[in-house]
Amino acid sequence: MKIFIDTANVEEIKQANDLGVLDGVTTNPTLLSREKNNPKKQLEAICKIVNGPVSAEVIALDALGMVREADDLCKISGNIVIKIPITTEGLKATKILSTKGIKTNLTLCFSPLQALLAAKAGAGYVSPFVGRLDDVSTEGLNLVADIKLIYGNYGISTEIIVASIRSPMHVLEAARIGADIATIPFKVITQLLKHPLTDIGIERFLNDWDNLKRTER
Ligand code: G3P
Fold first, then answer.
1. How many whole angstroms separate alpha carbon 83 and alpha carbon 71?
2. Ligand 1 centroid to 20 CA: how many Å?
3. Closest listed residue to residue 82, CA positions, set 104, 100, 108
4. How many CB atoms lie under 10 A from the CB of residue 110?
5. What is the DSSP letter of 148?
6. Active-site annotation holds for 83
């Protein structure tokens, strides 16, 4: 499973990239608004850090407006992927952009049939939001499993990005289901690595090493 980071913060992206596990970045208007920088400049800075795909979302609600914005965002860098909400206009824009060879990430996906339509319109990626479904007492990961099953039934190549991840358990289950990608907030990436037995183990090894050195003296 590929790992993307779900943030627009350059420091977080640098730190995750240094871990050697980062395959890409997803941003959204909320995440970019937290950075207090011109969004295009921020995206440019992000694209300089990572080699993989960087999702940048359109704001327009009409298909032609989305396509115009996409053309503009693509000028930032070759690794920009256009993030588009799954709506009627979003599907039209996806079709136009896929014909032009521009890769899209269809976002705010809350149903398997939305994901099927996204794929048929030519989406490169689809982003089911698991955490936001959990928030309304619906098992978000069931959506990922359904999309995986449907895409498998028809040999669909659209990649599933598990988004709105809130905990390491979301990541574990995404991997069990066989999702292509998990886009993970920085805090959760750091949690993935932590295990108390690893820390205790290191402490014990170092203590035993010190004891050995002391007896050697
Ligand atoms: O980037 C889209 C998605 O991951 C947002 O997550 O936590 O705002 O539901 P969240």
1. 12
2. 23
3. 104
4. 17
5. H
6. yes
